[in-house]
Design brief:
With about 100 residues, the chain is mainly α. It is built from 6 helices and no strands. Helices cover about 70% and strands about 0% of the residues.
Length: about 100
């Protein structure tokens, strides 16, 4: 009986710590990066004029879903770097919060 409870508690602790670790490290997904690029493309393109980003926009909604925009910036590939400004992507965090 004791070993079953102990095993259950250990499993719960492991699951909780893994979930908490992803929240602390600010892990993001490729899907989040793609959605931010899709929703924010007019604000982050290198050739676009700098525009004000409305806080209620779909762009800001997606930005607020990500804990750390540095994670998104790290996922921007070589081809995307030619089209999109990493500095503007980083700036979305301040503009949308």
């Amino acid at each position: 009986m004791f070993s079953k409870k102990f095993a259950t508690i250990v499993i719960l602790l492991v699951c909780t710590s893994l979930t908490s670790l992803s929240l602390v490290t600010g892990a993001c997904t490729m899907g989040q990066k793609e959605e931010i690029i899709r929703q924010c493309k007019f604000h982050i393109r290198r050739v676009s004029p700098i525009l004000n980003v409305p806080r209620g926009s779909a762009c800001c909604v997606e930005v607020r879903k990500v804990r750390d925009m540095r994670c998104i910036i790290k996922q921007i590939g070589h081809k995307e770097k030619k089209s999109y400004s990493r500095k503007r992507v980083a700036g979305l965090e301040k503009k949308c919060h």
